[in-house]
Amino acid sequence: MKKRPVVSMDLGGTNIRLGLVDARGKVLRRRRVPMFSAGSKHALLKALGDAIASFIDANGDLPSPAAACIGFAGPTKASEGYVYFAPNIRRMSDIDVGSYLEDFLGMRVLVENDANCAALGEYWHGAGKDASSLFLFTLGTGVGGSLVIAGDLWQGHDGIAGEVGHTVIDFKGPKCACGQRGCLETLVSATAMIKDYGKRKRLKTRSRAQAITAKMIADKAKQGDRVAMAVVESAAEALGVGIANVFHLYNPELILVGGGVSRAGSILLAPAVSRAREAIFPQLSRRLKVRRTRLGDDAALIGAAYLAHHP
Ligand SMILES: [Zn+2]
């Protein structure tokens, strides 16, 4: 009998992406819905269950899914279906998502950190295909990370391994949402770059600062805007130090950089790689291999399916 597909869900602060993914990693159907806000944890879980159930109903012409896997932007203990917290989603903290949704949907439900899902997706079908070991940086609103060794996630004792966004690059740097100073996330995320740009431009009003996006800053930098160039250079330097740290810690065969901010392309990545090579043992700096991810928004959906299809 042909293997049934699985439902993948990628839960972000703004949007929820859903996919039906077959055993070979092909996304058969997709849906994107805006993220909702919920008045209680129970309402949030029910809304997630409803979103999955309605997606399954709408694709009733396909074989019914065998399992669901949900990726969260936040630390999770996947083995217990538990989300410690997801900073971009209200009410999503200390919450037992797995067992609630298993009862609600009547199928096996896995939960995982979204960067972990994306890394597995890239390993299965993307820029990290068949790499013996890889580390993924996801540069978005925040900064995530994930380590994949021989096709398996290295989750760590408590499930939070790879949280590179909260490794400290500059201990006197900007304050981070986690309480520390100078975490990588405060220096190279979209949020950090927008803040840095606003500060350098002395944008006083919130509305003017809010109109800026990381993509606009990258575009301006490519056109030679000096302030935007300085913002990108500073972000690239922090990313380079972060890459060198990961290289020294894990020495993976491949380092991937993905997420919305990575779409800035070589204007960000080239100086980051140069900076990383400067910081790596000189005898080994040429061994550093950095690539951009390839699967875009599908990476987390495909990687979540990889987990469900490879129990
Ligand atoms: Zn932090």
Written overview of the protein:
It is a single chain. The protein is an alpha/beta fold and 311 residues long. It is globular. The strands form 3 sheets. The chain has a 5-stranded mixed β-sheet with strand order 3-2-1-4-8, with helices on both faces. It has 2 domains: 6-119 and 298-309, Nucleotidyltransferase, domain 5 (2-Layer Sandwich), CATH 3.30.420; 130-292, ATPase, nucleotide binding domain (Nucleotidyltransferase, domain 5, 2-Layer Sandwich). It is built from 10 helices and 13 strands. Strand 5 (76-77) and strand 6 form a beta hairpin. Bound molecules: zinc ion. Residues 166, 176, 178, 180, 183, 185 line the site of zinc ion.
Task: Write out key terms for the chains shown.
single chain; 311 residues; alpha/beta; Nucleotidyltransferase, domain 5; 2 domains; 5-stranded mixed β-sheet; globular; binds zinc ion
**What is the CA-CA span between the terminal residues?**
18 Å
Q: What ions, cofactors and ligands are bound?
A: zinc ion
Tally of domains: 2
Characterize the main sheet: 5 strands, mixed
Overall average residue pLDDT = 92
- Count of helix runs: 10
Helix content: 25-40%
